[in-house]
Design a protein that fits this description.
Blueprint (H helix, E strand, L loop, with lengths): L22 H13 L1 H9 L14 E4 L8 E4 L4 E2 L1 H14 L3 E6 L6 E5 H17 L7 E5 L4 H13 L2 E4 L6 H11 L3 E5 L2 E3 L2 E3 L1 H14 L6 E5 L25 E3 H6 L10 E2 L3 E7 L7 E6 H15 L7 E4 L6 H13 L3 E5 L10 H9 L3 E4 L1 H7 L5 H4 L8 E5 L5 H11 L5 E5 L33 E4 L10 E7 L9 E2 L3 H9 L6 E9 L5 E6 L3 E4 L2 E4 H8 L5 E11 L3 E10 L7 H14 L8 E4 L13 H8 L15 H8 L6
Parallel strand pairs: 4-17, 6-7, 6-8, 7-14, 8-11, 11-12, 16-17, 16-18, 18-19, 19-20, 29-30
Antiparallel strand pairs: 1-2, 3-13, 4-5, 9-10, 14-15, 15-23, 21-22, 22-24, 24-25, 26-27, 28-29
The structure holds 5'-O-[(S)-ethoxy(hydroxy)phosphoryl]adenosine.
5'-O-[(S)-ethoxy(hydroxy)phosphoryl]adenosine binds next to α10, β20, β24 and β25.
Length: 669
């Protein structure tokens, strides 16, 4: 395997016309972005439409140091614009109305369609008028629970057009999780679809929404309108599907079909001019204390940052075909399937299915079908696909590819090499993009035409981003070393607050080290200045790129009447990156058996979602604790991997507990 010394250079033929085609040019631009942000971003904002122009005196303002007052970030304050106008009308006016905005590829290869910029604008305006007719106004939150279909994009941009704040929840979250998120943002309108096929699995989305809406009602909140895309009837079901006979139940007065509402809607909708700092959308992410955090992004800065990172990190050129496999329910789907590509007038592929259906070569056949030039996916998918015979890749023509992206978790060098050699044929650049829901866009990443690549390194900060590594006492580590990854100034796309909870925003991200935004990740800087993200330093787990907190899962496990205490740790997993290893202490006179394990698994799936399903649940009559009663997770992590080198245990109240837990490891662990 490549050592840290291995370096791979961008292919000079592929990247001779790259926006940034040498490392020196990256360094120059980077310096300008840091020393003179007004000039750097000033050139970029000119390419967008502002109804009220940007005032140079209020270009950007911030405070990252709580000792000096409340934390805040503002970009282009006082200017007004509309994001949907910039993504759609601007491109249509520039003569790109007939350009394809999206190729849609269904779960079944027989299902596909396309949407031009002009048609997308028309649909967005129509749906914006539908939302208006339901009483949705500027600032109102709209809950969205959608599969990977074009209506999802229409729904988001329609909100944007009228200044409503979309709150999309990944359609793999359970009814309970969705209800909690609707309640938190008190959305009165919900948009969903009847259902969807993912591979051979059927997801009844509307019935999940029904349960969520019931739960909201029990908590005193009524969703007044539920708009449902009729989707199942227009797609091919997998051959193994049992004919669905029961119709989607629709509640009179509350539920209506999208298609019915769109029929009479006008296709003209004047955009609502929004302040640059007005909210654009919110997106929930896991918090280490359990309750999800409603990360809030605003209008002007997010638009500019999504557009700029997309252009440079993927080196997107007007005739390229870009494909991001992320679900629209995650930030990657927001920034790099919707906002970033459309802001650049790009043509993208949107894919409804899975990499394994109908065969394990689906990704490669889609790349060939649409002649994809930039492909953006997650390490977990790469690891799952590299298990199969390379022949599955090689029998497709992937020669159009130029840039391969990775996101969501650290990419291990084995997966990086396979991606580089087998998928990229040793000529594509790999961009290992580090970022977060909170950062809005890429913050550490190579640039494909400029950065020599090291397998597994997110490399260098993007323009405008100043990264630092801090030691435990908050001192900056210069040169080589490892520490907390932090940023000492805002870039345009950083989140502005947590919805309705500015205190938590300050406490979570700015309290530990005054003056810095704290990512919660650790990183190492090597002797060439490359940054390597090493993973979370807090109690967060990253399962297949889905972030969740240990306490969130623990509190679900302890809801079960037979569980008195639970502790969850991450265990390395060959495909998912990490998986959940749970220790549970049973209440007296109950027994640890398959029935209990099934109930616990079901509980986690119901409360959080199928992706949070534990891999191992171990019976733990006692948990290793310090004398002050704090669970020593460090030791539990060792037990999870059966590593007896547990280090210093002098603070442990009872050392026998550890031996007992090693002896009790379940056979499947
Ligand atoms: C992790 C996803 C290493 C990291 C865009 C971060 C990564 C969390 C990378 C955010 C990467 C994401 N290398 N780690 N290239 N990309 N992460 O909010 O731990 O779903 O804090 O945003 O994923 O996850 P989120």
């Amino acid at each position: 395997m490549p050592s840290e010394k291995s370096v791979y250079y961008p292919n000079s033929n592929l990247f001779k016309n790259a926006y940034v085609n040498s490392f020196e040019q990256y360094v120059d631009l980077y310096k300008q972005s840091i020393d003179n942000p007004e000039e750097f971003w000033g050139e970029i904002v000119k390419q967008f439409y502002w109804e009220t122009p940007i005032n140079i005196d209020k270009f950007f303002m911030y405070n990252f140091d709580f000792r000096k007052g409340p934390i805040f970030t503002k970009w282009f304050d006082g200017a007004t614009t509309n994001v949907s106008y910039n993504l759609l009308d601007r491109n249509v006016r520039n003569g790109n109305g007939d350009k394809i905005a999206f190729y849609w590829e269904g779960n079944h290869p027989d299902d596909y369609s396309r949407l031009t910029y002009k048609k997308l604008l028309e649909e967005v305006c129509k749906f914006a008028n539908v939302l208006k007719s339901k009483g949705v106004k500027k600032g109102d939150r709209v809950a969205v629970y959608m599969p990977m279909i074009l209506e999802s994009i229409v729904a988001l941009l329609a909100c944007t057009r009228i200044g409503a704040v979309h709150s999309l929840v990944f359609a793999g979250f359970s009814a309970d999780s969705f209800a909690e998120r609707i309640l938190d943002c008190s959305a009165r309108v919900l948009i969903t679809a009847d259902g969807v096929w993912r591979g051979e699995k059927h997801l009844a989305l509307k019935s999940i929404c029904d349960q969520s809406m019931e739960k909201c009602a029990r908590n005193g909140h009524n969703v007044e309108h539920c708009i449902v895309v009729s989707h199942l009837g227009r797609v091919t079901s997998p051959p193994t599907a049992i004919q669905q006979t029961n119709k989607t139940p629709m509640k009179n007065g509350r539920d209506e079909w999208w298609q019915d509402l769109m029929e009479d809607a006008s296709s003209l909708c004047y955009p609502e001019w929004m302040q640059a700092e007005d909210p654009l959308f919110m997106l929930y992410t896991s918090g280490s204390t359990g309750k999800p955090k409603g990360v809030l992004h605003t209008t002007g800065g997010y638009m500019i940052y999504a557009a700029t990172t997309f252009k440079y990190v993927f080196d997107y050129k007007p005739n390229d075909i870009y494909w991001c496999t992320a679900d629209v329910g995650w930030i990657t789907g927001h920034t790099y399937m919707v906002y970033g590509p459309l802001a650049n007038g790009a043509t993208s592929v949107m894919f409804e299915g899975t990499p394994f259906y109908p065969e394990n070569d689906r990704f490669w056949s889609v790349i060939q079908k649409y002649k994809v030039t930039q492909f953006y996916t997650a390490p977990t998918a790469i690891r799952a696909l590299m298990k199969f015979d390379n022949e599955l890749v090689k029998r497709h023509n992937l020669s159009t590819l130029r840039v391969l992206g990775s996101v969501g978790e650290p990419i291990n060098p084995e997966a990086w090499m396979w991606y580089y050699k087998v998928v990229g044929n040793e000529k594509c650049s790999i961009v290992d993009t580090f970022w977060q829901t909170e950062t809005g866009g890429h913050v550490l990443t190579p640039l494909p035409g400029a950065s020599p690549m090291k397998p597994g390194a997110a490399s260098f900060p993007f323009f405008g981003v100043q990264a630092a590594l801090l030691d435990e006492s908050g001192r900056e580590i210069e040169g080589e070393g490892e520490g907390y990854l932090v940023f000492n100034r805002p870039w345009p796309g950083i989140m502005r607050t947590l919805y309705n909870d500015h205190d938590r925003y300050e406490n979570t991200y700015f309290n530990k080290f005054p003056g810095y935004y704290c990512t919660g990740d650790g990183a190492r800087r090597d002797s060439n200045g490359y940054l390597w993200v090493t993973g979370r330093v807090d109690d967060m787990l990253n399962v297949s790129g889905h972030l969740m907190s240990t306490s969130e899962v623990e509190s679900v496990l302890t809801e079960h009447p037979n569980i008195s205490e639970a502790a969850v740790v991450a265990k390395p997993h060959p495909i998912k990156g990490e998986c959940l290893y749970c220790f549970v202490t049973l209440t007296q006179n109950t027994s640890y058996n398959d029935k209990l394990l099934n109930e616990l698994t079901k509980l986690v799936r119901e409360r959080i979602g199928p992706f949070a399903q534990p891999d191992v649940i171990q019976n733990a009559p006692q948990l290793p604790k310090t004398r002050s009663g704090k669970i020593m997770r460090r030791i539990l992590r060792k037990i999870a991997v059966n590593d007896r080198d547990i280090g210093d245990v002098s603070t442990l109240a009872d050392t026998n507990v550890v031996e007992e837990l090693f002896a009790n490891r379940p056979v499947n662990a």
